Structure formats: structure tokens, C-alpha cells
Amino acid sequence: MAEKQQKETILVNGYAYPSIAPETLNAWLPDLTFVSTFSYGFTPEGQLIDLMDENIAGPAQAAGVQALMVLTPLDSQGAFNNELVRALLENPQAQNRLVENILANIRTKSMFGVDFDFEYVLPENRDQYTNLVRAAREKLNAAGYLVTAALAPKTSAGQRGLLYEGHDYRGMGQAANFILTMTYEWGHAFGPPMAVAPLDQVRRVLDYAVSEIPPDQLLMGIPNYGYDWKLPFIQGESRAEKLSLDEAAARAARYGAEVFFDEAAQSPYYYYTDGDGVSHVVWFENVQSLRAKLTLVSEYGLAGISYWNIMDYFPAGSEVLREMYQVAKV
């Protein structure tokens, strides 16, 4: 009788807001290595803006899952503020204070490390951002803690655009312990209907990422949601509805919609007409599309995956993950 092949062990991260339902968090915990609590803020002077995340960190630790604190420069409207980033990065004393405050918070809450998620960093602050992450890693690693960084889905070093220019893949790969690629949001709430994470686009990002960062430092982002667009789409006016994957599937069944599968994007979609006679298109993830994404982990030799986000549970998704991989506990 042939021996059963041992499954590859991978790291699995999931982002969660403190508003996550306890039953949802508990459903996810067996399939997570890390849970990243979203998000802490900071002031220009380097003071930490606390997150009441004990309802995530406590159950996670009890289940053998390590909690990471996510640090973002979000303003009071929930938008990324690159002027706040600039003020911090151009003040060495504030950076030192911030790193000390991060370390103190991790110790106080018995967490495992920090995930830096600074988006729309100005190009002139790129290297300063890399240096901040490096300084944090040196300080935190010496104390036994982890530093990760979430990066925009770049396909080349010189890629233009504010989302990309402030993120140095090679530098950040050297600065942080792990890099989380945000390989999602091609299809997004304000954009035209398309797959959230088309596999051909995800491959382009991974091809570039592994040329700059050792694959065993990379966690590939996977979306745990879909979008429903009303048709016709009108740029600047239309806004798609975000759906859980269970709701996306249930909606197709409710309207008797035929689900199609885009071969290039390796993603499902369907059309339906609602009770008011309005046409819709839905792009989402299902077992087939998630399996296609998960296959990339072994193909590229990645460290694992990172779900954005785990606010809804998709049992079929967890089943396909367990079918393919063993989830590491650290």
C-alpha cells in the first residue's frame, strides 16, 4: 500500500476587526497560525492609539494562535494619511518612541509581534519607511517577537502610482521577517466589475515578489469576500456591495442564476435581475477559485497565505485549505 503523502505545512494569517463575532473567530482559529488585529494607530509624536482587541487576542492565545497587532496610519475618517506617515518618518525621536510603545503593547497583551500596513506612502518617504520596519525588527526580534509588513501588489520595481511607489519590495524583504502581499482588490467597490483577485494578475505579482524576496518569507493575500455591482456600471457613481462568500453563493441560488467561471481569472461570476428589474453582476470566490490560489503556495514555495479578512466564515474554504495543507502553529 502506498504511503500517504505528508501535507506541506504553511503559515496562515487572518485579519480581524474587534467587532468579529465570537463564533466566527472560534470557527477560524483551528486554521490560523496568526490573527492580525486591525488596527492600531499612532500620533505624529509616536504615541500608540490603542485597539481594544482583547476579545481577539485572548481566545486566539487559548487556541494556540498567535496575535499580531496591525499598525496603520488611518485618520479619523478611516483613510490612509500619508502626511501622518511623513511626520513620523521625518522625526527620529518619534520613530524610536513608536517602536518602544509597540514593544510595550506586545508585552502587556502577550502578543506575538506587529504587522506594518502603511499604504499610500509618499515616494520620498519610501526608504525611511523601510528603515522604520528594519529598526522595529531589530528591536522586536531581540525580544523574541515578529515583524511583518503588508505590501501593495506590485509587478515591477518602477511601478508608478501612489499605492506602489512608497513600497520597496527588496528593502522590505530584508527589513521584515515576513511580507504579506495584498493580492486582492483588482475588483473593488468603486471600480468596474471584475474578479477581486484574478489569478493571472496574482501570478504577475508573485513573479515579481519572488525576484526580490525569498519565497519562504512571503504570504500571499487571499480575499474572503465578493462584490455585487448594479449594471450598468457608472464610473464615479457606482458602488458595489461587498458580500460574504456564503451570501454570494446563496444569492445565486435565490435568483436561479447560472454561475460561470472565468478561466484566465480562475474566478466565478454570475448575473441576475433583482425584484426591481435592476441587473447585477457578482464576482466572488468559491472552492474552485480558492483551490487555484492555494496551489500557488506550493508552486512558488511561499511561506503561506493571509486572508483579508476573517469577519465572515466560509466553511468550504476551510475544508479546501485543510485538504491541501497542514496549518502551522508557532
UniProtKB/TrEMBL annotation:
It holds the Pfam family Glyco_hydro_18. Gene3D superfamilies: 3.10.50.10, Glycosidases. CDD domains: GH18_CFLE_spore_hydrolase (cd02874). SUPFAM superfamilies: (Trans)glycosidases. Keywords: Glycosidase, Hydrolase. PROSITE patterns: GH18_2. InterPro entries: CFLE_GH18 (IPR041704), Chitinase_II/V-like_cat (IPR011583), Chitinase_insertion_sf (IPR029070), GH (IPR017853), Glyco_hydro18_cat (IPR001223). Residues 1-327 form the GH18 domain. GO terms for molecular function: hydrolase activity. This is Glycosyl hydrolase family 18 protein.
